[in-house]
Amino acid sequence: MNHNKSYIFFVIILFLFTTHVFSGDAGKNGFALLKMEVDARAAAMGGAYTAVAEDASAAFWNPAGLAGSSAKSFIFMHYNWIADLSQEFASAHLLTGKHNIAFSANLLTMKDIEIRDMASDEPYGTTEWIVFSGMMSYAAYLIDDIAVGINLKYLFEKLYLEKASGWAVDFGAKKKNVITGLDLGLTIQNIGQMSKLRKESTPLPLMVTTGIGYNLPVELLGKQPLIAADVQYVNDESVYYHIGSQIDLYKYVTLRLGWIVGDNKNQPTMGVGLNYSRFHFDYSYSMTQYDLDGNQRISLGFQF
């Protein structure tokens, strides 16, 4: 299939995906874990990673990106959020080649929540809130430079004595080298449902994201800078714009900048990465509104 036909095929996939997403009713959603960024590299680039991710983190950002990696990889991320909320993410890309498979776990916890049924000096006890997503990903090249991927998710939520579980599916597509150095990415995420948590089911955040990643045809310090941009639509009628950039400094250091805009959000991001052999350590900082402390993530990854 020639370049023009494969590009038209990718556009058709985009049309079908976006039509499906917005055929349903808009409304509020929950299960915030599914919207929280993973990997300090992506967070430092403002979450503009749909067309960029090609290692184990692609399981979250765009499962089709797994097909672009020739090496197995693992990544772990830790994130302390507000009010003692903590997020942990781990992903392993274990099978590469014609067929690609990855397994991931994403966990959000809030501990030491006091239990009271009336005003009192001391609580009856404490409990914790747990939100979990376990995921299996598959990706392969379909035609030419077009890869497709799918995630199957198991979802779980627990608060005190109440529990709920559910499932969700993600679909992704990626077209490499639309022009030299320019990749396109597309995802539709969180098609699924939860069982009832007490009286109501938590609605999932159905999202469609389109993105580009472009390695500029110039060299700085012997490396090509990367720029990326995503547009994300959420079924609560929110739209987010993500932009990011990355430049390698010599051999061991990578600098990243980004910005997130949308739904009363105006958030600059930044970060640094240290690379040695098959290992990389990354840090990101995201500024926040309302004088809250900034968001900091750290992640560690390696290829094997």
Architecture overview:
This protein is mainly beta. It has one domain (32-303): Porin, CATH 2.40.160. It has helices spanning 3-21, 40-44, 58-61; strands at residues 73-80, 85-95, 100-115, 125-143, 146-159, 162-179, 182-194, 196-197, 200-201, 207-215, 226-234, 238-249, 253-262, 265-276, 279-286, 295-303. Strands 1-2-3-4-5-6-7-10-11-12-13-14-15-16 form a 14-stranded antiparallel β-barrel. Strands 8-9 form a two-stranded antiparallel ribbon. A hairpin with a 2-residue loop joins β8 (196-197) and β9 (200-201). The chain starts with a helix and ends with a strand. Mean pLDDT is 88; it is low at 15-27.
The span between the termini is 33 Å
Highest CATH level, the class: Mainly Beta
Shape: globular
SSE sequence, one letter per element: HHHEEEEEEEEEEEEEEEE
Strand content: over 45%
Q: Roughly how many Å is the radius of gyration?
A: 20 Å
The tally of structural domains comes to 1
Largest sheet composition: 14 strands, antiparallel, barrel
Give the averaged pLDDT, no decimals.
88
Strand order of the largest sheet: 1-2-3-4-5-6-7-10-11-12-13-14-15-16
Find the count of extended strands (DSSP E, 2+ residues): 16
Report the total helices. Answer: 3
What structural category arises from helix and sheet content? mainly beta
What's the name of the CATH homologous superfamily?
Answer: Outer membrane protein transport protein (OMPP1/FadL/TodX)
Helix fraction by DSSP (H/I, runs of at least 4): under 10%
CATH topology: Porin
Give the helix/strand layout.
Blueprint (H helix, E strand, L loop, with lengths): L2 H19 L18 H5 L13 H4 L11 E8 L4 E11 L4 E16 L9 E19 L2 E14 L2 E18 L2 E13 L1 E2 L2 E2 L5 E9 L10 E9 L3 E12 L3 E10 L2 E12 L2 E8 L8 E9 L1
Antiparallel strand pairs: 1-2, 1-16, 2-3, 3-4, 4-5, 5-6, 6-7, 7-10, 8-9, 10-11, 11-12, 12-13, 13-14, 14-15, 15-16
